[in-house]
Input
Amino acid sequence: MTSLVAGVRKLAGRGGPSPIADRLTALDEAVAAGRGRLDDRLLERAGSVVRRAEGRLALSGDHTVIALGGATGSGKSSTFNALSGVPIAAVSVRRPTTSATTGAVWGAEDGAEVLEWLGVQRRHRVETSPGELDGLVLLDLPDHDSTEVAHHLEVDRLVQLVDMLVWVLDPQKYADAALHERYLRPLATHRDVMIVVLNHIDEVPAERRDEMVADLRRLLEEDGLAGVPVLATSAVSGQGIDELRRLVAGRVREKRAAAARLAADVSAVAAELQEHNGTADPGRLERVERGELVDAFADAAGVPTVTRAVERSVARRGSQHTGWPITAWLGKLRPDPLKRLHLDLGESGRELTGLGRASVPEPTRVQRARVDTAVRAAADRVGSQLTPAWSDSVRRASVSQLDDLNDALDRAVVGTDLGASRTPLWWRLARLLQLLFALALVVGLLWLGALAVLGYLQMPQPATPQEYGLPLPTLLVLGGLVGGLALAVIGRIVNGLVARSRARAAERRLRGAIGEVADRLVVAPIDTEITAYSEVRGSLQRALR
Output
């Protein structure tokens, strides 16, 4: 948009900062940020304002383009000739007279570049111009009420391009609804670049002229055009023409009409865009709403199922380390709950399962409905205060990536370190103790068995050592049995506590991974829309400054 800055400096004739350039830049940024979110037709109108501004700013800043518009028989062409001082425009009793736009240029520069941009083919150079009109490009537009559609289109096109408008009205048709509803009322924001002329005033009885001018002012006020200069003229008698020429000359001399027209264009479309966009502050996704979103996603991902599997898996592995060797060995025959879910243990297990899918059940209808409700609540929490355009945009963004939900949740579960593979040191010590208790039991049983066989065969028996008043083999059997049972019971209790702790830790890790999925699939798209909304709102505020 640096070309806008250069263009405005060229137009204004000074090198300082330009508020018009800033406002046009802001409007262009608002259009870019609002694409796909706000009304396309409104954005296109705003974009066309920027494009027209670029075209106008690329032209000479020494010319002021003023157009004469009006209905059939209003005397536009006569007024055009009266201002020019030479008969340029054709004047006839045949109506409509003006079938194509006529342009006249005052001053040393021929203004061909400006007329080319305007698309005006009928061109005249006023050689004997008074110096006060140097730089004026005066256009005589076709009749806006012509029966020719091409005339309507030509008027509509040039009304959007010129720097200033002079509406020439007929005393008999100055209240014409078509003029007020089609042109004057929609241009209420352009009052600073508009003049209204009540022509043929010589045909109105003198006692009614002031009343008619006052009535015209009243109609203009109803159109939102209070303060617009209103002149009573007669192109035939010359009444009011000198005053009109002085007023036009003043605007040409100031060389501010083009900038004022651009400013009015920006104000009009930016105000309409701001009404559609809104100025309310968006809502914030609080911890509670995000927590509900993560809860719904976690439920759909089967996190409760996985955490229960972690608890059972840890308890199973703990019993294999702290239980009797025989029962521990039998326990290995039961499948690991995590392996049944394709959530194997250890780094090697994760390497094997990380490329596949977990066997967690697919979300049920109830779980999916809970996800939809949580997503909708998050979108409503953020966008409820915004205009319908933005609340709809936020809602669309919140569900725009939910097609990837199942895969994303599955990857989050599979890729999470559940912490079930770690083996505490006390498990290893317990296994060693259980082996020692089992060895003592076996040795004691074999010893007692040998003594029983010797006694049965009535063979001499070696002396049996005693400890604490009990034979040593009996003590070994009792010690191995009681110690193994006690350690198994204690291990079962402690393993239950460890399993629940590991399950809670796994749940926290899973919820963290699920939270990242929720942020990526739901929160981030919503934040993108809010960022775009803030950009549009801020840009429009600058454009309206």
Residues 416 and 510 are 6 Å apart (CA to CA).
